[in-house]
Specification:
Plays an essential role in chain termination during de novo fatty acid synthesis. The chain has 385 residues and is of the alpha+beta class. The protein contains 6 helices and 20 strands.
């Protein structure tokens, strides 16, 4: 049996309260209240109000307001700026993807839009570093999927899948100018390029969607690993040829600001604070059967002193990934101010000397094998000056 679904009318958005539920012949009708107490203005001038996008069945016309529950196929909650985004550049309409992203700059850059939700913010009502990193990861995966080279919709190309290869990140550097607030809408641009003989570099620029203010930048290096042997692998010529058409030679972070300096190893004697017994859970695993790299950030910050988390904001973070982690591992997190680590550098990556700098280590608790080394920089929050 073939089902008929009516086309989506992006303009059919009803703002305000849905009320006055009536009954007729045992069926409930949904009816918007258009009296003075209900806001029916559909102007897109309030970024924090939600709307209902109604996708009706083939019996409903755009002019029809009421319909039975059975006639309403989907009633997803969306941000009202969706209409504005759809109309802001009509020439790119055909390039908009299912993930609410699109290609820009002659398809060299992929742009994803995110709306900051209440469960993605921290105590200060701004997004957490973990949320920001999730935005970056989601954008790069959607980029690969929409390039047309992804075989399994998780970043692996056709030739990679034939060779049982997956992507693994080896280093990430993030610079944050400010953290977006609840209700704000941001756009993330991403692209990738070759990096040496055996890797690629992926960059991101994060902007306020409306003002175009740059609020964060990031760069990373990636290589390949055999998903069965769990060993690093070279990029074959066949895989390289799949990726060459999408290489884009541009740096998100200026070359002189890229953190190439070694992150010194913490030891039991140099670490100032510890967090023992960190246990990965089932929901920390990704489709490649290891802990998702974003999860490490939360565990690294577990050993940062509480007063630092409360009074300072992280403005820079560099992560070195040394080995993967599985669900059966037991971890410990260690942190220390850089002044307590011999030879640690004062990396001035955001052109302003940080108020604090920390060195971090995440390792296996039993064997002491290193998982991640990290360096973070912090500035005192405005309301604490």
């Amino acid at each position: 049996m073939t089902s008929m679904v009516a086309p989506i009318n992006m303009g059919l958005q009803f703002r305000g309260n849905w009320c006055n539920v009536n009954k007729n012949k045992g069926r409930e009708f949904l009816k918007p209240n258009f009296n003075s107490s209900c806001n029916t203005n559909i102007a897109l001038n309030n970024k924090r109000r939600f709307s209902l996008l109604v996708t009706a069945s083939s019996q409903c016309s755009p002019g029809r307001i009421m319909g039975t529950i059975n006639e309403i196929k989907h009633v997803p909650m969306i941000h009202p700026a969706a209409g504005k985004l759809a109309n802001e550049n009509k020439q790119h309409t055909t390039l908009v993807t299912l993930f609410r992203g699109r290609f820009v700059k002659d398809r060299s850059v992929y742009r994803q839009i995110f709306f900051v939700r209440s469960y993605e913010i921290g105590p200060d009502k701004t997004i957490t570093v973990e949320t920001l990193m999730n935005f970056l990861q989601e954008t790069c995966l959607n980029h690969m999927s929409n390039c047309g080279v992804s075989q399994n919709d998780f970043g692996a190309t056709h030739e990679m899948d034939l060779r049982k290869l997956i992507w693994v990140v080896t280093r990430i550097q993030v610079q944050v100018q400010r953290y977006s607030k609840w209700g704000e809408e941001i756009e993330v641009d991403t692209w990738f390029d070759i990096a040496g003989k055996n890797g690629i570099r992926r960059d991101w620029i994060i902007r306020d969607h409306y003002t175009k203010e740059i609020i964060a930048k990031a760069t990373s290096t990636w290589t390949m690993m055999n998903r069965e042997t769990r060993r690093l692998s070279k990029i074959s010529e066949e895989v390289r040829q799949e990726l060459v058409p999408f290489f884009f030679n541009k740096l998100a972070i200026a070359r002189e600001e890229i953190d190439h300096q070694k992150i010194h190893k913490l030891t039991d004697s140099t670490a100032e604070s510890f967090r023992y017994g960190v246990t990965p859970g089932w929901n920390d695993m990704d489709v490649n059967q290891h802990v998702n790299n974003v999860k490490y950030i939360r565990w690294i910050l577990e050993s940062v002193p509480r007063e630092v988390l409360e009074d300072y904001k992280m403005t820079s973070m560099t992560l070195e990934f040394r080995r993967e982690c599985t669900q059966s591992d037991l971890l410990e997190s260690m942190s220390s101010s850089s002044s307590n680590v011999t030879g640690a550098s004062n990396n001035d990556s955001v052109n302003t000397k940080p108020d604090l700098q920390y060195i971090h280590l995440l390792r296996l608790q039993d064997t002491k094998a290193e998982l991640v080394r990290a360096r973070t920089e912090w500035h005192l929050k405005q309301n604490h000056k």
